[in-house]
Amino acid sequence: MKAAYADPPYLGCGAKHYGDRHDDAAEYDTPDAHKRLIERLCDEFDTWALSLHEPSLRAILAMCPDDVRVAAWVKPFAAFKANVTRAWAWEPVIFRFARNRTREQDTWRDFVAEPIAMRRGFPGAKPDKFCFWVFEGLNLTPEDDFHDLFPGSGAVGDAWKKWKAAQVRPEQIELEAT
Length: 178
Fold this sequence. Notes:
Blueprint (H helix, E strand, L loop, with lengths): L1 E5 L7 H5 L12 H14 L2 E5 L5 H5 L7 E6 L15 E7 L14 E3 L14 H10 L7 E4 L6 H13 L2 H8 L1
Helix pairs in contact: 4-5
């Protein structure tokens, strides 16, 4: 199965947060860029997840096919800003599933509670537990073809390697070694 995770600059935040890191960051300040991204996800991938921020949820969800689901990354510890009196300590994640879960699998919850990643050297870097939740939600297997469309810090790719290694059973390692 071909799977993707997309964590683009959030709508209206591209130039502000990533303009000094990527020449095309400001492109994502427009809804059209997000619409093209969703079309790409639907055309090229069997299953996918898309991170966004709450202020853009209404606009971006309207661009998605009807079979998507919205889940939540709840952040028990999140960055607080001076003179901001409400902390929006969650982010929506839109999922498009392709592989059903079996009764033998643990039930996947449509939320994960995990603090933001600290000291990753890149704004918006995702913690491993969040990434593992995305992989489980998409019901991926180590054999799946996974693509991180916005690699940024490399945290999602690193987490994919860790997650895949944890999924391999000892007898599989032994068979591969012979």
